[in-house]
């Protein structure tokens, strides 16, 4: 029969508790959401008012990717060269 000591149980619960706090916590700020809406307002304009929601989502994703990756400009240049 398998016996588990109370110390082992406490250690396991403590470990699970730490993991839950790290990966299951909710961000208590609306800044990322507000930033996304602001960027969406910049993309949608009087001249670009017929973009589909899917295309807008793709543009916002690319904008976020290129802002967060320092080497994104060289990647974009490579992609454009391959296209030509």
UniProtKB/TrEMBL annotation:
Residues 11-64 form the HAT C-terminal dimerisation domain. Pfam families: Dimer_Tnp_hAT. InterPro entries: HATC_C_dom, RNaseH-like_sf. GO terms for molecular function: protein dimerization activity. This is Zinc finger BED domain-containing protein 1-like. It comes from Aphis craccivora.
């Amino acid at each position: 029969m398998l016996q588990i000591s109370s110390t082992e149980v406490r250690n396991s619960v403590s470990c699970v508790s730490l993991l839950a706090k790290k990966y299951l916590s909710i961000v208590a700020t609306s800044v990322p959401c507000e930033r996304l809406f602001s960027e969406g307002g910049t993309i949608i304009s009087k001249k670009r008012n017929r973009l589909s929601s899917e295309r807008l989502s793709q543009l916002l994703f690319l904008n976020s990717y290129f802002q967060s990756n320092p080497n994104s400009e060289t990647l974009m240049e490579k992609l454009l060269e391959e296209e030509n």
